[in-house]
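Build the 3D complex.
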Amino acid sequence: MNAKKTRNGNRTATRKAAPARAYHHGDLRSALVSAAAALLERDGAEALSFRAVARAANVSQAAPYNHFAGREELLATVAEQGFRALEAAQIAAAERAGTGVSRVISLGMDYIAFAIAHPQLYRLMFGVGVANWCAYPAVAEAKHRAFEPTRAVLADYLGAATPSATREAAAHAGWGLVHGLAMLRLDGSVADRAGSDDLEREAAAIELFAASLGRMGSAP
Amino acid sequence: MNAKKTRNGNRTATRKAAPARAYHHGDLRSALVSAAAALLERDGAEALSFRAVARAANVSQAAPYNHFAGREELLATVAEQGFRALEAAQIAAAERAGTGVSRVISLGMDYIAFAIAHPQLYRLMFGVGVANWCAYPAVAEAKHRAFEPTRAVLADYLGAATPSATREAAAHAGWGLVHGLAMLRLDGSVADRAGSDDLEREAAAIELFAASLGRMGSAP
DNA sequence: ACCTGAACACCGTTCAAGT
DNA sequence: ACCTGAACACCGTTCAAGT
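Done.
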């Protein structure tokens, strides 16, 4: 979390009671990922420099190339980690939530809350700062898994009687909706008044979607 | 459209029958915007260099600073132009469309079609490659105007009897939905099968949203 | 008023060389 | 196997100087 320049975190493999400067550093790879995640949230993906990450980890500018093919692969790793965190948050929200409409709404609002809590990470996860995401299949898979909770909750909400095509469309619409609301929020597109009623407006949009979807499920 | 290195376009102010190299270039500002738009769609916002734009316009690397505060302001200008193009497309789609549900669906599908037709421009318009969009109020205003057609069509679709809070929520949800679907598409998040049924899936999502919204409008 | 050339401090990436 | 130092070609931006 700290972006200090002196002394690095050295999170894992602390078997020797925090050596001041390890010659081979022990676990440079994860130290780089941590440093990148911290710098990302501070400066944004477009301003994140590979050299600055190396400096934050107290190694030379060329050292990271032993662990990553280049800057983009490091960003992809951070994004993949972000999708796993989102997946965990969504699973927790699904367990915490109640039943029926409120369950759907809870999951949607939790999704938006994740984006607001880690804005730069969320932006990175959805393509900001990386040209070709498709080159990293691990990221695509993590992304797909992060959306499973919403898919399951919506299917449960619609009921087993709903045809699978409708369920699929609802899942796609639901993902599109929360993702769109999150992106619009991060852009500041909706901040024309006080920032506090942004959440209300998003809640209203999600409630409207969920309520009208429920009406559709009972009368297809 | 051409990204050749020799000879520039010189689009406007062609009063002297295409002078080979104008000393003061006539209208460098719009030439830079055109060159930037072309390079943007070719390489993406993150790979767009201010120097390359200057080269494409046959001027020195420092010349653009007479017309733009920096790289970001040039990108903001391109984005603003993009929002105006989107607004025009949405207005045209609203006039072209029929009535009722199909009108709503047409507008939504046209929105997604715009994003697919100009993927890098659309990405730029929604924050890719620029740290603080808020610093450019002209962009925010153009963005707001680009969404007016959808807002109007949805309000018309719901009917005057619908309370304004519901109309506002529906407009926000509609924008979020189409924007989210567009972004997911551009990320390649939904391309797990043949690319051709992506449009079908988006249409299904929008139809589901519009149909269930209509049901809500008639029974609030 | 507008443009140029040279300069500064950065950047991503490569590579021989070290341990 | 991992890391360093120096190098290359780029970049955004500034600034004195030209016309």
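The mean pLDDT of chain B is 85.
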